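User: Could you check the structure of this?
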Amino acid sequence: MLVFTISASGKAKKVAVIACVRKMVVTLNSILWDGVTWDENTAKK
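Assistant: Sure, the predicted structure tokens are below.
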């Protein structure tokens, strides 16, 4: 997971959480922008 990777590199936990939230928001924004539905099989790649 991204949180553990960032935390292991010496960053503060708050920075790791914000990075994960940002990644999720960017992903959700692109899904809404493109008008596609969530596909779990594609997400695992």
